[in-house]
């Protein structure tokens, strides 16, 4: 039975906001700095630093998606892949010496860490898209059956 009540909608709204926060925060801050000082600086590692917000949002979205039986698979897969890629990119950086600075950030290993981290960001975006799709389904007006005369 689908539950599209107010509680499910609140879960989905809060979850979507939290899921998008790690993606939109660095972009917003960069734009504010660019407008204010004329310099464009982007902290591309901020999505990893703000991952606890995305994790909380994804868990709320997963709960809402399971209650509504809508888009929960996209959210679950996105969350699983995001966690694996974040752990993988950090482990790779530590093992190769990039995290400690023992290895210069150039070459194959640097590119592999950046590509893995980029895929993590794409997984976060997929979770956010799942939240938007879930919200669309939750707030879509339900159709009443048409009576035939």
Keywords:
149 residues; 5 helices; single chain; mainly alpha; elongated
Radius of gyration: 19 Å
Strand content: under 5%
What percentage of residues falls in helices of 4 or more residues?
over 70%
Number of strands: 0
Question: What best-fitting shape do the alpha-carbon axes yield?
Answer: elongated
Q: Which series of helices and strands comes N to C?
A: HHHHH
Q: Could you report the average pLDDT, rounded to the nearest whole number?
A: 91
Structural class: mainly alpha
The number of helices is 5
Q: How many angstroms separate the termini?
A: 30 Å
Q: How would a textbook summarize the main sheet? A: none
Uncertain spans, ≥5 residues at pLDDT below 50?
none
In terms of quaternary structure, what is this?
single chain
Quick rundown:
The chain has 149 residues and is mainly alpha-helical. It has helices at residues 6-37, 46-49, 51-68, 72-96, 107-139.
